[in-house]
Amino acid sequence: MSVDAATVRRVAKLARIAVSEDDVPAIETELNAILGFVEQLGEVDVADVEPMTSVTPMAMKKRKDGVTDGDKADDIVANAPASEDHFFMVPKVVE
Predict the structure, then answer these.
(1) 85/69 Cα distance (integer angstroms)
(2) Per the domain annotation, does 82 fall within a domain?
(3) Which of 15, 28, 34, 83 could link 77 by a cystine bridge, Cβ 3.0 to 4.6 Å?
(4) What is the value of pTM for the model shown?
(5) Number of separate domains in the chain
(6) In a domain, 67, yes or no
C-alpha cells in the first residue's frame, strides 16, 4: 500500500491537523515507511507461537469458586427505611 500527497492531506484534514504544503512530502515518506513496516509484520509466520499475556511466563491467579458470604439478608435490609420479605421497598415513581 502506498500513500500519496492527496491522501496525506485528507488524513490531516480528518485528524484536524494543520499540515503545510512543505511538510506533505516528509509526512508522505514517513507514512509509507510505517505502512511498509506493517506489511513486513504480516509476512512473519506466527502459526506456532502461543499468545502471551506478559513477557515473562506466569500462571493466572485463580481463586476458589465458592460461596464465601451470604445468609445476611436481615443485616442488609436493617438500615432500609422500608423492607418486606428481605427486599427493599421504594415508592412508586412510574404510573
Answers:
(1) 19
(2) no
(3) 83
(4) 0.49
(5) 1
(6) no
Whether 77 contacts 89, CB under 8 Å: no
C-alpha cell at 76: 442488609
- Which grid cell is 92? 412508586
Cell of residue 59, nine digits? 500462571
69 within domain boundaries: no
Identify whether the C-beta of residue 19 lies closer than 8 Å to the C-beta of residue 12: yes
Distance CA 55, CA 45 (A): 19
Measured between alpha carbons, how far is residue 39 from residues 1, 29, 46, 49, 92 in Å? 8, 15, 14, 19, 61
- pLDDT by residue for the chain (95 residues), tens only, comes to 789 999 999 999 999 999 999 999 999 999 999 999 999 988 888 888 888 877 887 787 888 888 777 778 888 889 899 999 889 999 888 88
Domain hosting 32: range is 5-42
Quote helix, strand, coil % in the chain, to nearest 5.
35, 5, 60
